[in-house]
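Hey, can you fold this?
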Amino acid sequence: MITVSELHKSFKLFAKPADRLIEAITGRVRHSTHTALENISFQVGRGEVLGVLGRNGAGKSTLLKLMTGVLLPDAGRIDIEGRVTGLLELGTGFNPELSGAQNITTNALMLGMSHQEIEARYQEIIDFSELGDYIHEPLRTYSSGMIMRLGFAIAIHADPACFLVDEALSVGDGYFQQKCMKRIQAFKEAGGAILFVSHDLNAVKVLCDRALVLEGGRIVHQGDPEQAVNHYNRIMARQAEEEEGRLQARQEGAYGTRQVEIRHADAWGRRSGSATLGSGDVLEVVLDLEAHQALDDVVIGILIRDRFGQDIFGTNTHHHCQRLRLAAGERRRVHLAIGADIAPGKYTLTLALHSGDHHLDDCYWWQDGALQFEVAGYLEGKFSGLCRLPCQIALEDSTACPSPSRQEAP
């Protein structure tokens, strides 16, 4: 259905608009070259969904624009069987001064539909979008979510053979996103080919048969969706480390007597290998300690907080009846493992060193938000709320469905 071979695309970048005119008149080079895509090759068969992952600027949107004909490649081939439609950047192909109803006609014509096809599916498009009377209002009065509803409704009813989905889908509300996902799944089961670009890592795992990761305009990984997600997470973890200068920030944000201090700290998912992990993974925490004087009772404490600053879980070595003695100048590495059976979201780890049950008497080291991690998606069955709790249900005279087996971390 879709075959991309050795695709290449670059852009000329000018420091100021006048340089473009000077280069055109004089022939002197006044631009730098940015390679957006280089040697991109992949295939998508019938009834197959290929996920595309990559951080901002990796080349995802450029790839979709090339595949829809918005841009032309510098080199390489794109072969697509049948009609191609897609939901690219929000509002692409719409006229804000026209009503939603008028935009159905103009946008559908741009997608290759005939007037007869538009007339036959006109009401279906309106019904699917659920815009009601707003369909007759100017598009400039629409919210981003309403524009996404209309764009997806038109694209999916254009009877495409291949469907391209960009991150624009993420602006919709949860209900309509689920509706779109069900329609995409039905399109796949009917034999359609889908290229799915998203930062929703759980959706990539659930929906996609394969996935590729773009970095710097090149494919750096292609294969199983879960492995691709893990590779993408490692890229994002490296970016966070580089941009935030986390080690320096941690040292500057700590307080206490510093009789013993944390010289370095890191956290990652046991299965993901990065600071982004699935719910049900094990969070590995490694602390490098250095004592500046001899101490007989060093307690290591951790506290997980959510993005609102609420305490989610905390414990320390005193609660686990473990006692740590350190000599002056001694360095020690400590490993902690925490079962991350918590809901998707962003979290921080507060780290503490003290004596006894709490830090109020002898606080050697305390650092709020020393580490960050994100829970994205579920490794096991979904749940509502903040965390997974043991639950047993017994129903008499009912047919039980097999429950997903719990996968223990190695």
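Oh, and this one too while you're at it.
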Amino acid sequence: MIKINKKPNILVIGDLMIDEYLWGSCERISPEAPVQIVDIKKETRVLGGAGNVISNLVALGSNVAVMSVLGNDEVGIEVKSMLDEQGVKTFLVEQVGRKTSRKTRLMASHSQVVRYDKESKNSISPTSVKALFEKFQEKINSYDIVLLSDYNKGVLTRELLEKVISYANKYNKKVLVDPKGDDFSKYKGAYLLTPNKKEAQVASKIEIDNDTHLKKALEKLKEDSNLGVSLITLSENGIAILENDEVTVKPTVAREVYDVTGAGDTVLASLGFALSLDYNIFDSVEFANLAAGVVVGKIGSATATLDEIEEYKASLHKSSIELHIKTKEDIEKISKRLKEQGKKVVFTNGCFDILHKGHVSYLNIAKSFGDVLILGLNSDASVKRLKGENRPINTQDDRAYILSALECIDYVVIFDEDTPYELIKTVEPDILVKGADYEGKEVVGSDIAKQTKLVEFVDGKSTTKTIEKIKKAEK
């Protein structure tokens, strides 16, 4: 996992737009024509194009600035407002008569029915190019890396690209580009491009149907654009990187794909984020793969936070045990996100001093009641107050580590109080689970959880009995 040693400052230049979604359901066909009638339930708008790259960078925790050209219209005003809401620094040129891009998608039952666009696609004026480049020259030293998001809407003209890339290289600033078109020579001098397979085939004029042709395409792109690193995104097959005359393919890690909208933006943003933290290209690509895996599992243009990426990686590689041990602050954010995702959260707690079959059986049953099991673990100090000075046998760190390795447990949170009431208030679980010995007793937190369930213990299995058996063996 990427270790965050600073908050990177990242500059994005490119085509800004609004992605609009009309969400509805379809239950009949129009009598006027053989088309679906969609009953619109809600409308949502998010930043698109370079704006989606920005949203991804903000979600990752970057300080972000953007340079672009907008029209003097209502869509342009809305774009500015949305950027302000995200705390993004803006260096925007308003060009009279230009139409700011808006893409509208009609969605029925989570499927895209149709998309229609309103925009200008002609190149920005020489005056706008001059204004943008002058601002770039003024601000270049404030940023760690430069991302160019080209949606072929006219902002990134060949003249502007040449000026920006050349000037950035003069100050040793890496430039990453999400390219468009069939001539990548206009990006000459960039550190890397992020074309997908189809884009790479068009630009290189090489059909990528085997490993040999993949390498030739990577070499051609590197040569034509004088790149520092040549890579091609291969959809479900991952990302191919040419480094030191060797091709390495970092496999994708997506489990479920619901919508690929904006996945390329996420790759550009996450690569820029990782490289700005001085990570090597292979670790950066691995991070970008994880981020993309999170995003394609969502509907619509989406972003991935560091917490989501960490959680996603943990779900793919259960062996990353430490990732399941969380602080109270962590679990508050996670619980909120789980609720937004409609997950049924189960909570239980205990000392779990010497783990045995009874514990594992109990925890497996607890997990069966919902989607996610959060376990509140008594701290060492808490166990001593409850069980006596000779307990616990195992430290809280050891107990948390062992419990986190169990398949049935999603998160472990250590708490220091005598009861987990405050932790339960933070989690607000759907299901609260306790042992059957609480039958007829008040269960702490039952006033918070939607439902309380009691689980029978396995006969003859307990930590106390295990300790007694050990003591007898020592005599």
